[in-house]
Amino acid sequence: MRRDTRLSGVLHVLLHMAEQKEPVTSEALAKAMDTNAVVIRRMMSGLRDHGFVRSEKGHGGGWCLVRDLAKISLRDIYEALGRPSLFAIGNRAQSPKCLVEQAVNAALDQAFDDAEALLLSRLGNVTLAMLSADFQKRLGDRRNRHRLEIVHAS
Q1: Structural domains of the chain sorted by starting position, each given as residue range(s) with its CATH number in brackets
Q2: Axis-axis angle for helices 26-33, 6-18 (nearest 10)
Q3: Which of 75, 149, 84, 86 is nearest to 116 (CA)?
Q4: Full DSSP string of 41-63
Q5: Could you tell me how far CA 74 lies from the centroid of its own chain?
Q6: Residue 127 contacts by C-beta under 8 Å, 6 or more apart in sequence?
């Protein structure tokens, strides 16, 4: 089964952008993410629509963050992505009149609702600033600090 990795990918891109003083091109972000620049532009346009980034055209242009990292939670980004499904499992719906299926689905619905509420709460408590601080700690005192080509070569 294929996993939806968009949230992880978007967070990855945003943290790279946070480390740059200048706008970052779709091409540079695509290279860091080992994907196509069109994929990055599509992702970034959705984030732009939600007020997280802006694009600058022309020479020296690219994508920039427009909100403070401490004010962006993982839940904010998750919601900007359209609230993709959090779980790969779900209820069987082949026999909706079956009382056994109804009992099973009611129990699973409650468990899924509880798990989703907990996960969304935790995503709401983690900011991009917290992720950035963790990244900085992991980066340590490397000489070149943060350069996309160096961080991804390690």
Answers
A1: 6-88+127-151 (1.10.10.10)
A2: 120
A3: 86
A4: HHHHHHHHHTTSEEEE-STT-EE
A5: 7
A6: 69, 70, 71, 72, 73, 74
> What gap in Å lies between CA 14 and CA 76, rounded to an integer?
13
- pTM as predicted: 0.82
For residue 127, give the 3-state DSSP assignment: strand
Tell me if 47 sits within 8 A of 97, measured CB to CB: no
Helix, strand or coil for residue 14? helix
What's the pLDDT tens digit per position in 41-94? 999 998 999 999 999 888 888 999 999 999 999 999 999 999 998 988 889 899
Give the tens place of pLDDT for each residue, 4-49: 888 999 999 999 999 998 999 999 999 988 999 999 999 999 899 9
Helix (H) or strand (E) holding 64: strand 62-65
